[in-house]
Each structure stands twice: as C-alpha cells, then as structure tokens.
Specification:
By secondary structure, the protein is mainly β. About 10% of the residues lie in helices and about 45% in strands.
Length: about 375
C-alpha cells in the first residue's frame, strides 16, 4: 500500500485507527515508527479525531504492589461472564527497568499521560505514557532538591489554547538540623506550592490561599489529587462543607465554587463526570452522586444517581471512587475483617435512582493505586 498511496493519504488513514493498533504498526517500517511515535502533529490529530468521535479507549492503570508491576484494565468493554475484570494486561514501566530503579507512585493522568513520582522522593516527578512507554523526567522544583519534603496535594491538566500541560504540587518542606546527637532532627516546616509548565519546561513558585483547608480523602493521610474539569483543578474543603477550591490553569489563580445546598450533606470526594464536576454525598448508607451541570453555577448542582458501596457499611473503613462512567462508578473500598485485618474490594456500583446495586470485581489484602487514563500517542517535547 505504501508503494501506491501518497504518504499524506496513508497518514489520514492511520490517524483514524486506535492507539493499540498504531503501536503494533510501528514495526512495519522506520518511517511508520517515526510518524506514530515521534510526530507530535500526528499524535495530536489522532487524539482529536478519536475525542471527536468518542472512540478513545479508557483504561485503568493498577499498581500490583511489586516494585515494577502495573496492570491495565479496559473500562470500555463489558467483561465476559467468566472474568469479572475483563480485558486486563501487564504494563511495563521503563522507570523501574533501570539499574537501581526505585518504586514508582502513580498520581493522576491527563490525555493519556501519567504523572508519577518516586516513592519517598516526591520532588522527582515524571510524565509517562503507558501506551507508548514515553517517559519525561521533570526538572526539580527550585529549592526543593536538597530538602526533605512530602507532597500534600497536586494536580495535572492541559490548556488547549496554549498547548501547555501544567502540574500543580504543594509540598511540605522540613528544616533539618544535625545538632542532635541521635541524628537529624526536624526543627520546623513550611508549605510551598509550585507550578510546572511544559511549554516553558520550568517550575515556578506561587502562593495558595492562606485560608484554604484542603483535606485528604478517605484513603490517604497526606496526599490529595486535584480533579480536572473545565481546565481547572478542584479540591474539597470539607470543614463545615465549605465548598470547592478551584485552581484556574489559564489564569493561575484560585477561586471557590459552592457545593450543593442541602441540609446535613457530607461531601467527601470529587470526580469528573464527562465534562462536568461531580461530588459524592456520604451522609447516608447509600451514596448520592451530584453533578454540576453548568460550571460555576450553584443552582445547577443536580442529584443524578444513588450508589451502593457496601452490604455491611458498619464494617467499612473507607471508600473512594476511581472512575465515574455513564452507567456505573468504579470504586475501591476497605473493609475490616473479623481477625482485625483489612481487605480491599474493587467494585462497580450501577447507577440507579432507586434500589442501587453493586458488583465485587476483585478482592485484595493490599491497597492498590488505581488511575483512569486514555490510550493516546501524546508526549511532551
């Protein structure tokens, strides 16, 4: 076919193929490999066509608990009756294949790109595409490389107008003294917020609102992922249901959005539902899913579905949504066993207005990091 068709026609055909097929076709020729993996215009065009036709494959990246292990679950295809998890495959992470490679933490995703960091070294961040194995090591935020720190909250988003990916990271930096004969002693700490721009390839420091009260979700003590919606990142401020703290990626400034105006609401989690921001009300045994149909408008919050997360809520120690789809929500929950240990269930809760139902897809004794992502060819220069 390549001998008879002009290259631009071949490119137009390839642009309409799914990412998984294109990755296989990189072995056809060196030229095809370059177009598919190294041409940013081809990657963006393929992504835009698939987005327009709603054919992007959505998958779930799952940490297996081993130093280098990840698996990927297809969220688009209904699982066969003999396999509750459906299409699941192993994923190689180049970061852990290097000599002396350290365990990787996956944080969040945007347009098929995963924001990841080294465990216990959070200022060392990477962008990784599991579909193509592209990896980019981000520069260290200024002033953090030599100081002990932990990551408080973070986010990853894309600005289409400027073709710019931005990473938001709020660190808690510890001041260390070696005067103590027993070893280093933490003397004090301060919070630093940094923004990375892929366009400029640099970090810059900014300030979070002094009165902000971003709290970690149910499954974490310190780290909190921002929910991307309408080119802004969102975190809950749960004290007295204060509202949502949003960071506008274009203006690089914070603003507050309201939560649904209901009595005795107990909002614990935010996620994206299509193009809309959604919130989970945990005030009752069954969870109510609310959607902000018109962004920024308080009166547009609408209760759409009721979710069932447990048959024995009195034994549940926590739950958190992983992916919100049109027909169901995928969640992970922790339950206390009779022997005092914990078991973690990966479940699918079917969206219904009444009589909600749930299905347990897998059970594990360890917490698994899970992040939804899309199959794309995108990468950062």
């Amino acid at each position: 076919m390549a001998d008879h068709l002009p290259e631009h026609v071949i490119v137009q055909i390839l642009e309409r193929l799914p990412t998984k097929s294109l990755v296989r076709f990189t072995s056809v020729s060196k030229r095809w490999r370059f177009i598919i993996l190294s041409d940013p215009h081809f990657a963006m065009s393929q992504f835009q066509i698939a987005s327009h036709h709603q054919t992007l494959r959505r998958r779930l990246l799952i940490s297996t608990g081993s130093r280098s292990g990840f698996k990927s679950l297809d969220l688009n295809t209904p699982p066969p009756s003999q396999s509750p998890l459906g299409d699941i495959c192993s994923v190689r992470c180049p970061l852990t294949q290097q000599p002396g490679g350290r365990p990787i933490r996956i944080l969040c995703s945007c347009n098929g790109l995963i924001l990841a960091t080294l465990r216990n070294q959070h200022n060392n961040m990477y962008i990784w595409n599991p579909s193509t194995q592209f990896v980019k090591n981000l520069p260290d935020p200024a002033g953090l490389a030599s100081e002990p720190q932990c990551l408080l909250y973070y986010g990853f988003g894309y600005l289409s107008a400027t073709d710019d990916y931005k990473v938001i990271a709020n660190f808690e930096v510890f001041e260390v003294s070696d005067d103590n004969y027993d070893g280093d002693e933490v003397e004090g700490k301060e919070k630093e917020m940094h923004i990375f721009s892929s366009k400029a390839n640099i970090w810059k420091r900014t300030e979070a609102p002094l009165d902000s009260n971003i709290a970690a979700p149910l499954h974490s003590n310190i780290e909190y992922e921002g929910t991307l919606s309408n080119e802004a990142l969102h975190w809950l401020e749960p004290e007295d249901n204060l509202g949502v703290l949003a960071f506008d990626l274009a203006k690089e400034e914070f603003r507050r959005l309201p939560l649904p105006r209901i009595l005795d609401g107990d909002f614990r989690e935010l996620r994206a539902f299509g193009d809309c921001l959604c919130a989970f009300d945990c005030a009752n045994v069954d969870v109510d899913l609310w959607v902000m149909k018109e962004y920024g408008v308080a009166d547009s919050w609408t209760k759409l579905f009721k979710l069932k997360v447990s048959d024995q809520p009195e034994e549940m120690v926590g739950w958190w949504p992983v992916s919100v789809k049109e027909a169901s929500t995928f969640l992970q929950k922790g339950t206390l066993c009779r022997g005092g240990g914990l078991v973690f269930d990966f479940i699918r809760s079917v969206h219904t207005e009444e009589n909600p139902e749930m299905h347990v897809l897998s059970r594990d004794t360890d917490f698994r990091e899970m992040i939804e992502y899309q199959e794309t060819l995108l990468w950062l220069g």
